[in-house]
Known about the structure:
494 residues, alpha+beta, Rossmann fold, Jelly Rolls, 3 domains, six-stranded antiparallel beta sheet, 25% helix
Amino acid sequence: MRAALTAAMRAALAVVVATALVLGLLIARSGTTRANPDASLCAPPLPTTTQAAQTPPGRPPGWGARWFPALDSARAGRSLARVAIVGDSVGEGLYASDLTRTSWAAILTATLQEDAGHGGSGFEGMQRSQTFVEGFPRAAFEHYSGTAGNTWVQTGGWRTPQWPHGPAYGALVGTESGSTATIPFTGTRLVLSYVDRGTAWTFSVDGGREQRVTPGDSGGPAHVELTGLPPGSHALHVTADDVDGPWLTGVEGSAQDGVLVDNYSIAGLESGAWNNTDQWRSGELVGGRRAPADLVIYELGGNDALKAVRTVVAATVAGQPAVTSGAWQGTDVGRLVTGPGIGPGTTVTAVDTETGTATLSAAPAATATGELVVTNPDVSARWQRNIQGYLEGLDRHPDGTLVPDLVFVWAPASATPAIEERYEQLKAASRALATSLGAAYIDVQAETQQPWSVWCGLGRAGNENDPTTSGTDGGHPSDAGHRVISDLVLSVVR
């Protein structure tokens, strides 16, 4: 029984990985090749009689009260118009052929800056480090690390512990004395964000005088600022003077006027990354009071749906509420369970992770070893709590309304029915919240009036094995898909 169950668990693990990564929004940090939907799911475009012309998403009355004056002021050369993009791997740019040129965020940035002036390179976090990108599927890592400007240039040893260390949610930490990172930026002002911990480190700009930073031990957010730099492009050179330094979260280059886009998107993030439960998860760091934006584009939720459903191989015994598998998690408590012999409405009431046993609210009706689907029924409520926490960090007018204008963006996705059901629940919650806040709402799939199969058939799905071509990725767009998203966002913000 134990040998059979172990084999079944291994088989199910493969199913779990393949199923989870169909949606394509969670990057495996192990570098494992990710499964894609079958190419047969891609379909040619629908007949023209059912394929309505794309129309820009409507802007609610009063939308743009902050953003459009800021954009006009940038055009006139009077001030910066600041944009914050808060997203996951789609916002980060996967699987565009060039993260800095052909992703939807890069196209948005270039278009706005061409229109209203170059306000600087904006925020770029540790997600651009080679160490972080190395966790992408192997072919994607090799492509991006070999494409100029897509990753920082590093020497020596580094690691990227990814727990809450905003504004990049993680940090690039030296593991060897003398390790270096060279980071390009544009602007007359530079802000280096880091965690106030670890050992001393030095930095210089364009080969100039080295400056030493000796961090404290507060463990909180800290930064170093340089002003008065010559306009144009620069190279920041950071050196770890010892092991465990620096804890670099990111850099921001800015000018005095024009459009500045801070992209805080990171592969794998859920809405809980910015839920205001502690100083590192505060929206103040990403478009809020410490880095105030005139426009916030929020693109988090795909991973919430993805992680709300998982498969567990378990052994059930008829009439016994205890279920053994070895893969139960404490977060499974309260979640719905379906599978062989499991009655409707059954939930997990307790989990013992040491023995790998879960207790169900109702005893199974059958003895079996097989896959049980564990689903979070509260995914939309959780997303709403998290987004409300994020919004607490943003500036507000005296009447309580948000100062920055807000846009919600939802990219097309293809996954298992259970995951897609949660994704639709999240989109519905987002649409309702947008209405209540007077925010703009973009459901790319609804706007194009095409199912994911047609999105894929039109070459808009990404390809982790070769980002220069389209593929069948269930969540990440190709260059063509990123272009569609950027066009829709631009139709709202210009």
